[in-house]
């Protein structure tokens, strides 16, 4: 198939590869703090504060200005002193997709707007200082084996379009029980089926895989991430909101909660996390939002 755009130069390939390896550095990950106003709307409501731009800006500032124990990596708005978050932090990222709409003739499938104009937006984000970006499209999860089918189709399409896989990362959900399932499964079993699905349907050329927490609580996600990294299968790829409560005087408490979770996930990404049993109520709550419209 002919390229729609010029093939990447060796220098561009090296830059992309270097960025993916920086993101996947041992014990590090991605802080997803780029939610749209619609996606983040229910968070302020859960603590009794309004979904206002200033509240969203200040909460992100709390996360991104925590002390040196954590290395945040996303940005957008400005801190109190007027310095843009992309300058406050070293690594930057952007979400490229737009809205999702039902795909005609399918049983609940969606299509993501934004492919038209994608090249121009990428160029502008790069000019603004972003080093990596994310593209996503949800898939209905009531059919099995969703993970396997979607992953296989995605990598087939990427290969068909000559995508430089060494300059990409995959960010899937873990393979977990359905939202309506009442049965609890061991974290080790979640890890085993997750790694199995990825081994069968992703490419070893991809430098690393980062995970969404999905419907798991913060603590459950950390424990499952730890189990994934301890899984004996071959892997060829490398609660702050509640504490804030909308009150600026809670800044230190929020940042301590954020650092605690970041350090837990850092250990979990190496298979070294040991739950203390003192995660707190907020960290034990499920993060799923039923029937959420992104």
TrEMBL record:
Its EC number is 4.1.2.13. Pathway: Carbohydrate degradation; glycolysis; D-glyceraldehyde 3-phosphate and glycerone phosphate from D-glucose: step 4/4. GO terms for molecular function: fructose-bisphosphate aldolase activity. It is an enzyme of class 4 (lyase). Keywords: Glycolysis, Lyase, Schiff base. It catalyses: beta-D-fructose 1,6-bisphosphate = D-glyceraldehyde 3-phosphate + dihydroxyacetone phosphate. GO terms for biological process: glycolytic process. Pfam families: Glycolytic (PF00274). The keyword Lyase applies. InterPro entries: Aldolase_I_AS, Aldolase_TIM, FBA_I. Belongs to the class I fructose-bisphosphate aldolase family. PANTHER family: FRUCTOSE-BISPHOSPHATE ALDOLASE (PTHR11627). This is Fructose-bisphosphate aldolase. It comes from Cebus imitator.
């Amino acid at each position: 198939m002919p390229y729609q755009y010029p093939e990447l130069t060796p220098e561009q390939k090296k830059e992309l590869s270097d960025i993916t390896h920086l993101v996947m550095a041992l014990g590090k990950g991605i802080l997803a703090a780029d939610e749209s106003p619609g996606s983040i709307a229910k968070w302020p409501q859960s603590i009794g504060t309004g979904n206002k731009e200033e509240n969203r800006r200040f909460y992100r500032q709390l996360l991104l200005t925590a002390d040196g124990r954590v290395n945040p990596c996303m940005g957008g708005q400005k801190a109190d002193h007027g310095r843009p978050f992309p300058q406050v932090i070293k690594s930057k990222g952007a979400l490229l997709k737009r809205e999702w709409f039902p795909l005609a003739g399918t049983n609940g499938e969606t299509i993501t707007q934004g492919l038209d104009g994608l090249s121009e937006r990428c160029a502008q984000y790069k000019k603004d200082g972003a080093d990596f970006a994310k593209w996503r499209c949800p898939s209905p999860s009531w059919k099995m084996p969703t993970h396997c089918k979607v992953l296989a189709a995605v990598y087939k399409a990427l290969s068909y379009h000559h995508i430089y896989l060494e300059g990409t990362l995959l960010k899937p959900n873990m393979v977990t029980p359905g939202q309506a399932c009442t049965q609890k499964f061991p974290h080790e079993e979640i890890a085993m089926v997750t790694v199995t699905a990825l081994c069968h349907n992703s490419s070893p050329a991809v430098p690393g895989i980062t995970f969404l927490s999905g419907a798991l609580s913060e603590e459950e996600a950390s424990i499952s991430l730890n189990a994934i990294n301890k899984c004996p299968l071959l892997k060829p790829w490398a609660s702050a909101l509640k504490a804030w409560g909308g009150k600026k005087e809670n800044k230190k408490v929020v940042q301590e909660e954020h650092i605690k979770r970041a350090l837990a996930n850092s250990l979990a990404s190496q298979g070294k996390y040991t739950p203390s049993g003192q995660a707190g109520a907020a960290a034990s709550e499920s993060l799923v939002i039923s029937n959420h419209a992104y």
